[in-house]
Amino acid sequence: MERKVIVTADGSSTIHLSEWDENYHSKHGAIQEAKHVFIKSGLSLFSNTEISILEIGFGTGLNSFITFLEAKKLHLKTDYVGVEAYPVSEEEIGCLNYIEQLEATEFESVFNRMHQQKWEIKNEISPDFSLTKRQQFFNEIDDVNTFNLIYFDAFGARVQPELWTEEIFQKMYNSLKTDGILVTYSAKGSVRRALQTVGFLVEKLPGPPGKREMLRATKK
């Protein structure tokens, strides 16, 4: 499938899949979306503690890198797991402008290390941040009672409806600890109902630029 790096409305880059007319991040702003959906609506609920995060769709590494930056401010010791079936190429990573857009030059080596490290191995990015990248399909996830927070950042249901089913969300529910949280940019009624069916308490929140609403789901 043809992929090309494009620039979104906030100046940050993403990858566009021509065949699907789908982007890795919102065309209205990759960084804006990541900060609103995953940081403001998810990570910021935790502070001064240890946290384990599962990202569904590691992709460009934007969410993990922003989490690294924000976790420092929140004094979080973070164990981050990113799942990705089709890793982004080194050439594509080299075309992304996140370091510049986030004004994070001092942490450029961290971003590079996140992409250069081997898959399936837990790596210490810093004393307070570890990263494990797992190359697997989402329906192969079998963690139980492991994570405090899930970033559900799969491609949209329009192009991959099989990733937004009760079967997948049951796996997400099982993988979370009690009171664990799942956040996603999607606000589709079918997604909300699937989350509720497997046991999540679901709330609608204001969405990022370009989207009216998003969902946050809690395991009770």
How would you characterize this protein structure?
The protein is an alpha/beta fold. It has one domain: Vaccinia Virus protein VP39 (Rossmann fold). Helices cover 28% and strands 30% of the residues. The strands form two sheets. An eight-stranded mixed beta sheet has the order 6-7-5-4-8-9-11-10, sandwiched between helices. A three-stranded antiparallel beta sheet has the order 1-2-3, with no helix packed on it. β1 and β2 form a beta hairpin. α1 packs across α2. The radius of gyration is 16 Å and the shape is globular. The model has no long low-confidence stretch (mean pLDDT 97).
Main β-sheet, spatial strand arrangement: 6-7-5-4-8-9-11-10
Pairing-aware structural class of the strands and helices?
alpha/beta
What's the architecture in CATH terms? Answer: 3-Layer(aba) Sandwich
CATH topology name, in short, is Rossmann fold
Mean pLDDT across every amino acid position: 97
- What oligomeric state is this? single chain
- Care to count the β-strands? 11
**How many DSSP H or I helices?**
7
CATH superfamily: Vaccinia Virus protein VP39
Unreliable stretches (pLDDT < 50, length at least 5) are none
- Largest beta-sheet details: 8 strands, mixed
Overall body shape? globular
Structurally, the number of domains stands at 1
